[in-house]
Amino acid sequence: MRLRTKRIYEKASGEDGRRVLVDRLWPRGLSKEKARVDVWARSIAPSNELRRWYGHDPAKWEEFRQRYFAELDANPEGVAELRVALGSRPATLLFSSKEEDLNNARALLEYLEGRA
Prior knowledge:
Layout: E1 3-7, E2 18-21, H1 32-35, E3 39-40, H2 48-54, H3 61-73, H4 76-86, E4 91-95, H5 104-114
C-alpha cells in the first residue's frame, strides 16, 4: 500500500486516494463536506492523555512515538480495522496539527510501515 500524510486543511486532490482522518477530535472550523474524509479512524488516534502530555513539544517526540506505539500495540483490533480500511490502494493519513513533521499521522505511518 502507498501511504502518505497530509494536513487536513490542505485541499483534497486525486493523488490522496482514500482519505483517513487519524485524529481523535474533529478539526476545528472544517465541515465534513469540505474535509472529504472517507474514514475517521478515531480508535487508533493517540489517547487524550498522551495527546495532552505531548503538546507537540519536539523534545518529547521520541518518547511520544514510543508511548503511541505501545498504545497501538495494545489495540490490535483498531490497527486491523485501519489496515482493512486502507486496503492496498493509495491512501492519505490526515491530521490537523500545524506541526507538519512531528505529529501522530507521521508516527502512525512509521508504525504501519514498520509492521507491514
